[in-house]
């Protein structure tokens, strides 16, 4: 067997005192770097991307609401409005009025995260505060008018997260047989 020389002994001692601790620090630094990176990403998202925890929508209705244009003296009627939180909007955009009127939840089941319904009376207003699901990417709003304008598609709206504000409600206006999103006040 080879006897350890003093040079080999010094190398072994140096290796034990310096290399092993340096290696341990280096490897633990990788985890530290990942932790710092994760927290930086979280901080950036919270600063630059608005996190909406509650969906705030205000519905206002004109006196002439849900009228029948075929009748001369058509009276205004309340309107059922359905609100859907969706993962994706493709299925919603493909559905027709009759599908959403009869069973919207079944028609949207693959993308649906949450839903609510409100009734808006002529000349009235309704406020909706609904917990926002984390996976929500789109908010779909459907007004179930007696005679919706199918050509203009004014019976439904799709809102992206950019259309929403975490603290202020967006106002949707119902009049005659149309649903519109009011422009935001700057």
UniProtKB/TrEMBL annotation:
Signal sequence segment: 1-33
Keywords for this protein: Lipoprotein, Signal
Domain of life of the organism encoding this protein: Bacteria
InterPro entries according to UniProt: T6SS_SciN (IPR017734), Type_VI_SciN-like_sf (IPR038706)
A Pfam family per the record: T6SS-SciN
Xref: NCBIfam families: VI_chp_3
Protein name: Lipoprotein
Species in which this protein is naturally found: Yersinia pekkanenii
């Amino acid at each position: 067997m080879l006897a350890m020389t003093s040079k080999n002994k010094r190398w072994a001692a140096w290796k034990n005192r310096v290399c092993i601790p340096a290696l341990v620090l280096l490897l633990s630094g990788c985890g530290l770097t990942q932790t710092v990176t994760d927290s930086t990403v979280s901080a950036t998202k919270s600063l630059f991307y608005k996190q909406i925890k509650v969906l705030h929508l205000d519905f206002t209705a004109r006196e002439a609401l849900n009228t029948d244009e075929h009748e001369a003296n058509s009276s205004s009627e309340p309107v059922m409005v359905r609100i859907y939180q969706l993962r994706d909007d493709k299925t919603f955009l493909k559905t027709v009025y009759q599908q959403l009127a009869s069973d919207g939840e079944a028609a949207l089941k693959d993308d649906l995260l949450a839903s609510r319904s409100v009734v808006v009376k002529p000349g009235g207003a309704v406020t909706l505060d609904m917990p926002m699901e984390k996976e929500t990417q789109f908010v779909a709003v459907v007004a179930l008018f007696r005679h919706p304008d199918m050509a203009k598609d004014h019976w439904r709206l799709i809102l992206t997260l950019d259309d929403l504000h975490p603290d202020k409600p967006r106002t949707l206006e119902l009049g005659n047989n149309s649903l519109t999103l009011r422009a935001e006040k700057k």
